Amino acid sequence: MSIATIESRGTGRFPGGVHPADRKSLSAGRKIEVLPPPPELAIPILQHTGAPCAPLVKARDAVVAGQKIGDAQAFVSAPIHAPLAGVVQRESVATLPNGRHVKTIPIQTGAEGNLDGDALWERLFGGDWTIRGLDAHDPSKIVAAIREAGIVGQGGAAFPTHVKLVRNEKKPVDTVLVNGCECEPYLTSDHRLMIEAPAPIVAGARLAARAAGAARVVVAVEDNKPEAIAAMRRAAEGAGVEVVEVETRYPMGGEKQTVRAVLGRTIPTGGLPLDVGVVVINVGTAAAIAGAVLRGQPLTHRVVSVTGGGVREPRNLLVPVGASYQSLVDAAGGLTPEARRVIAGGPMMGFAIEALNVPVTKGTSGIVVLTEADVRRAMETPCVRCGRCVDVCPLDLVPTRIALAARRKDWALARRHHLLACMECGCCAYVCPAAIPLVQLIRMGKVQMLKEEART
Amino acid sequence: MDNAPAETTKAPAVSIAPGPHIGGRSFTTRRMMLDVLLALLPVAVASFLVFRERALLQMAIGVASALAAEAVFSSMRGRRPTLGDGSAAVTGLILALSLPATAPWYVGFVGALSGIGLGKAVFGGLGQNIFNPAMVGRAFVMMAFPQAMAAGGYIDAQAGVDALTLATPLTALQMGGAVADLRALFLGTTNGSVGETSALACLVGGAYLCLRRTASWQIPAGVVAAVAAVAGLGRLFGPGGAWTVGHEICSGALLFGAFYIATDPVTSPLTPRGKWIFGVGTGLLVMLIRKLSSYPEGVMFSVLVMNALVPLINRWTIPVPVGGPVPERKRPA
Questions:
Q1: What is the nearest CA distance from B1 to chain A, expressed in angstroms?
Q2: Tally of CB atoms within 10 A around A63
């Protein structure tokens, strides 16, 4: 392993990638609005990568806002909290966008004890977030507070944050990289948060660096968000936090790409940013860390973009975890008649869902509703080996060969072409002139290959 | 969710599909073939200026025969019609442009038939073929009609077309050491196959193809670099003479082949490194055939030989992923 100097710098770019029309203007100008407390929440007991929580409450229990309602012994896990005061209902099951059936703890929210609108915003993001004295915090206490607050990565994978920040003597961390790239088209939740609440992001980033023992803090933002860059720069002044502009190119927000673009370091295949001395956290996660450590606030709310041509009035909403997609879509004026596909997350890597009775989780970054015209796809034709997929692959793979091998279930060929190195960003399928579902074939190939190899 | 407005509780007319949910639609296989046809426009114009209506006739025969062959073969195989993808038209046009203007009508017809049939359909159609279909067709007619395709076949003093009264520049060089005027080679006012004579037209169309990234620039760059290197070394260590590196590049089918034939994506390698190997290999073979064989020109054979090597080149040039190969992992117990 070679860690260059701590000041290492990338070029602001990574090789490959694509530049889809970002369509962010649909919601980029909309201030974050607080969703009025929905009458009912359904809190999934598994919202993260790791072990599910065991419920700490039972039906008919009264809970207060911020009360812990589920926890687990496992190290890789994160507790869950009641976002709003109310009464616990009988356990139920929800199907999350990734297809997993997960038990939920439903809460009938009460009229009393719940902060509304501006008061909630003030509590979570408003007021003073001085960075003075942050380095007096004990690193292990910061990590403990983050765990207790149930903070997980808000960028998508929802990996428990405390696991990333625990000091590891074998793998020292020199840089905390705060990811404000938001490279998925349509999504604007990180963008708005950087504009409207840069101070807690900066404070949280400094706390994360303190916890991990990193000397350097860098915030990376794509250059199509000048407003966010300016806001972050103002908030970062004198705080020992650098704000770096990177090229607008999907999948810049992937941690391999961000680390490469910002620091010029290459994360080994199958490895983590930790292997090159870096911890990457999303801007929302950074803000949540500040709330947890400085205000004892658990992660119960998050910003979600509800946008796309299939939504009447695209919005950025601050919503409680457990609110149904339906309530968010309603708050955005409902669906248009042209709405054709509802996506949890962005249109490149998000999951299409069939119904809106899905609860928001800590990892929900957006609900994008596409129209018929957006999703219409050409009929698949044979591969003419044009090599576009090779040109755009940010990991330098040969997607068409991997997909072909997966289709034929030729696992030796798939391995020879490094099937398992694929991060499934979908650039190949995006550009394919023959409309071959490359990333889908690769994804299925991975699962089938591992299954068959485990069997033999 | 009971309290939600009725019209929005209705599930939308959902369509479920795996991501990515959006696609870049500007670039399709059909668009790619259209690009090639557009890029051949300057070549077609140049060929008309040199060979007049004979050029138009060859192109019409080539394209019409290729389309007919495609229709026949795809229906024989029980496939949906594939004329719309444009690939047959490209094959027919490139074949026509690689024939002598003087060739009788059946040369183009048989060439297109064998190119589409033996070159493509027998392998399973578009995307499955190993060899460039147009070059398969040309190789076929070269054997079937040696008279029409040989050096003598290019000359027709009675045609009333200036270019046709003389031998092709490469034949003239091989036979008597006559050196063509470089300006004529560049503009294309010499004898030769219909589309190959004008280096200028090939450069204009080729530049368009590369800028559109329909053709990979590495391939023509490799071909030209290899030819220039061998020709340059030859002049450095051999007799100088009036036949310069520029003559070598602008004569024969070199630029036409480098930009339009060797760049056929189906029959060329996938990775940039593979494309360089392919281009340089093609260029070296062209020089080998030009200098050491009894054929005056060798673009067709060079491309066909390199086509055969493509699966191997692809195998040699699998890139190492960013971050290194996938680590060997213990099998889960």
A1: 7
A2: 24
The H or E element spanning position B283 is helix B272-292
Mean pLDDT of chain A: 94
Residues of A in contact with B215 (CB under 8 A): none
Query: Which chain A residues have a beta carbon less than 8 Å from that of B275?
Result: 387
For residues A402 and A419, the answer to whether their CB atoms sit within 8 Å is yes
Domain boundaries, chain B: 29-313
Q: Least CB-CB distance to B12: which of A327, A335, A350?
A: A335
CB A110 within 8 A of CB A86: yes
The C-alpha atoms of residue A250 and residue A392 are separated, in whole angstroms, by 10
Q: How many CB pairs under 8 A join A and B?
A: 204
Which of B191, B103, B194, B96 has its CA nearest to residue B145? B103
Report yes or no: A398 and B281 within 8 Å, Cβ to Cβ: no
- CB of B247 closer than 8 Å to CB of B189: no
CB A220 within 8 A of CB A246: yes
* A176 at B interface, C-beta within 8 A: no
| Residue B329, pLDDT score | 66
Look-up: residue for tokens 């960003």?
A: A425
For A445, the token pair is 């190939």
| pLDDT of B3 above 70 | no
Distance CA A358, CA A342 (A): 11
Rounded Cα–Cα distance for residues A207 and B149 (Å): 79
How many residues does this entry show for chain A?
Answer: 456
Instruction: For residue A356, list chain B residues with Cβ-Cβ distance below 8 A.
Output: 1, 9, 11
Backbone angles phi, psi at A203, to 5 degrees: -65, -45
Q: Residue B38: which pLDDT band, with cuts at 50, 70 and 90?
A: very high
Task: Provide, as residue numbers in chain B, all residues whose Cβ is less than 8 Å from the Cβ of A426.
Answer: 19-20
Q: Cβ separation of A375 and B13 shorter than 8 Å? A: no
Phi and psi angles of residue A98, each rounded to the nearest 5 degrees, phi first? -75, 5
Report, as an integer, the average pLDDT of A431-436: 94
Measured in whole angstroms, how far is the alpha carbon of residue B26 from the centre of its chain?
23
What tokens appear for B154 in the block?
A: 């290019």
Choose among A256, A364, A382, A257: nearest CA to A320.
Answer: A364
Q: Torsions phi, psi of A47, nearest 5?
A: -120, 5
- Token pair for B84: 């719309």
């007096």: which residue's tokens? A136
| Class of the domain covering A24-32+114-295 | alpha beta
Report whether A187 contacts A365 (CB < 8 A): yes
Instruction: Classify domain B29-313 by CATH number.
Output: 1.10.3430
Residues B92-134 have pLDDT tens digits of: 999 999 999 999 999 999 999 999 999 999 999 999 999 999 9
- Which chain A residues touch B128 with a CB distance below 8 Å? 382
Please, what is the Cα angle at A205 between A83 and A213, to 5 degrees? 120
Nearest partner of B88 among B111, B64, B110, judged by Cα: B64
On the question of pLDDT at A174 being above 60, the answer is: yes
| Cβ-defined contact of B20 to A429 (cutoff 8 Å) | yes
Q: What ipTM is given for this predicted complex?
A: 0.88
Quote the CA–CA distance of B197 and B43 in Å, as a whole number: 9
Residue from B22, B33, B277, B328 to probe the interface with A (highest A Cβ count within 10 Å): B22
Residue ranges per structural domain of chain A = 24-32+114-295, 388-455
CB A97 within 8 A of CB A84: no
Question: CB–CB of A387 and B22 under 8 A?
Answer: no
- Which of A347, A106, A448 is CA-nearest to residue B21? A347
In this predicted structure, the answer to whether residue B258 has a pLDDT above a threshold of 90 is: yes
